[in-house]
């Protein structure tokens, strides 16, 4: 290596390191984080030596915000996991706080101050480093300087993530040799394989740097196919929400049956299902609406309007800590699963938090967990997971898992979608265990594909069964059988 090249590489590392924000502790957390946290935007300062890597969308000035949490084990050799969130532009802070990150919100009555955090003992950072990315643009703290940059969809946002991955590894060359995995849940389920394909194509084309891509995983994934919702009624019937009588009255096109999908498609095309579906849909929806969709055993919480004490707390925060408060979420009961969502609004919109995370001023006036109001445009132009693409990626390890108490994307549909790939079975359906008890059920196929259920898991399985999910993920990413 020439002296000039060595100096150039050294300058690259120095300048890249200069743009990193290392966070030793987070606002509201008593004590230090268990491992290094880095936050920021993938952006290198312009210099006379390096090209000005600025954004993932140069035309509109869009930038993606990320949280990088190093492994609590050996970050030098442990895998790196790139994690995407599902939902309507939902911030990846949901995954970090509620699912697989090293901290959680303390559940206690909100008093107008900064919500407290606690250590999460079942974080996936026990076995891997994780890059949590706010994607697409407009989710969380990701932003666009030009409003046109918010007009994205499945394809364009995935291509921006490809740029993100490339630029992140340019700035973090020390992790290039670590095994790289891509993961996500819910709606991200159909984006993850497409992203893996695009990263793989860049690798084959010789685009530098080359990450050590090994595989991908999706939890309670949306496939984008009708099978996701076709299995809701059969699932609800199977768990006793819909009666035998009502289920038997439902037309065949509302029944999920692997043996007659072609017949059902023909009935739908001929319009013979429409009148029958209309007559029974409202009854089924009313019954299914009696349970919490994300986990049928949890309290069914209806968001309520803010109480008087919320307004008082809001005024205090507005004056002392938060800049704006236009989309204050309703306050659910404290024993609701959604109460931490409410607390996260005040934590993320605190000026103390923003200063700690180094959020760029003037970019995101108000953080919201999800764009539930649909204020920003988004196109679902990818349609569904392309089975041919999925099969083409068979040289990577792949993992699909489902919480078995999820009625939003029931495991019945995901399991059937996996079976439709017609992969040979290597290890047939069996229980997998933690502490000597069944923690779910699993099947392993050829082409390095594993499917598993998590007993007691919901739509975001790690949120409801963190200990079991950590055991499951740790075994899979170590290439061990569940």
UniProtKB/TrEMBL annotation:
Carboxypeptidase II is a dimer, where each monomer is composed of two chains linked by a disulfide bond. GO terms for biological process: proteolysis; secondary metabolic process. This is Carboxypeptidase. The keyword Protease applies. One of its GO terms (molecular function) is acyltransferase activity, transferring groups other than amino-acyl groups. It comes from the Eukaryota. InterPro entries: AB_hydrolase_fold, Peptidase_S10, Ser_caboxypep_his_AS, Ser_caboxypep_ser_AS. Its EC number is 3.4.16.-. The keyword Glycoprotein applies. Keywords: Carboxypeptidase, Glycoprotein, Hydrolase, Protease, Signal, Zymogen. Belongs to the peptidase S10 family. Residues 1-18 form the signal peptide. PROSITE patterns: CARBOXYPEPT_SER_HIS (PS00560), CARBOXYPEPT_SER_SER (PS00131). The lineage of its organism: Eukaryota, Viridiplantae, Streptophyta, Embryophyta, Tracheophyta. It catalyses: Preferential release of a C-terminal arginine or lysine residue.
């Amino acid at each position: 290596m020439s002296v000039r090249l060595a100096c150039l590489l050294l300058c690259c590392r120095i300048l890249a390191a200069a743009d990193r924000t290392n966070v030793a502790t987070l606002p509201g957390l008593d004590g230090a984080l268990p491992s290094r946290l880095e936050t920021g935007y993938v952006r290198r300062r312009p210099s006379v030596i390096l090209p000005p890597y600025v954004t993932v969308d140069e035309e509109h000035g869009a930038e993606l915000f990320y949280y990088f949490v190093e492994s609590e084990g050996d970050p030098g050799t442990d895998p790196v996991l790139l994690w995407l969130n599902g939902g309507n532009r939902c911030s990846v802070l949901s995954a970090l706080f509620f699912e697989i990150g090293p901290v959680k919100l303390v559940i206690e009555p909100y008093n107008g101050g900064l919500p407290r955090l606690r250590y999460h003992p079942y974080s996936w950072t026990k076995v891997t480093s994780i890059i949590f990315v706010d994607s697409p643009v407009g989710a969380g703290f990701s932003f666009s300087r030009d409003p046109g940059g918010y007009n994205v969809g499945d394809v364009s946002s995935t291509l921006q993530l490809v740029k993100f991955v490339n630029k992140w590894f340019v700035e973090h060359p020390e992790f290039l040799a670590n095994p790289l995995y891509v993961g996500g849940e819910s709606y991200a389920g159909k984006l993850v394989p497409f992203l893996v394909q695009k990263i793989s194509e860049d690798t084959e084309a010789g685009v530098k740097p080359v990450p050590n891509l090994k595989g991908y995983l999706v939890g309670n994934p949306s496939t984008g196919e009708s099978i996701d919702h076709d299995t809701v009624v059969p699932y609800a019937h199977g768990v006793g929400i819909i009666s035998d009588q009502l289920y038997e009255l439902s037309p065949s096109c509302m029944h999920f049956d692997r043996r007659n999908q072609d017949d059902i498609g023909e009935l739908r095309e001929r319009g013979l299902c429409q009148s029958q579906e209309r007559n029974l849909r409202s009854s089924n929806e009313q019954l299914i609406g009696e349970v919490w969709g994300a986990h049928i055993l949890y309290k069914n919480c209806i968001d309520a309007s803010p109480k008087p004490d919320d307004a008082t707390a809001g005024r205090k925060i507005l004056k002392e800590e938060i800049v704006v408060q236009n989309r204050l979420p309703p306050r659910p009961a404290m024993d609701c699963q959604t109460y931490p969502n409410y607390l996260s609004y005040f934590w993320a919109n605190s000026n103390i938090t923003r200063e700690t995370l180094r959020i760029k001023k003037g970019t995101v006036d108000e953080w919201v967990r999800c764009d539930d109001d649909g204020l920003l445009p988004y196109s679902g132009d990818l349609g569904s997971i392309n089975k041919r693409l999925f099969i083409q990626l068979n040289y990577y390890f792949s993992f699909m898992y489902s919480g078995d108490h999820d009625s939003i994307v029931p495991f019945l549909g995901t399991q059937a979608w996996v079976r439709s790939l017609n992969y040979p079975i290597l290890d047939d359906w069996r229980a997998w265990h933690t502490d000597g008890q069944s923690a779910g059920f699993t099947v392993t196929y050829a082409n390095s594909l594993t499917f598993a259920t998590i007993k007691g898991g919901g739509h975001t399985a790690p949120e409801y069964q963190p200990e079991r999910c950590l055991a499951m993920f740790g075994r899979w990413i170590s290439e061990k059988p569940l």
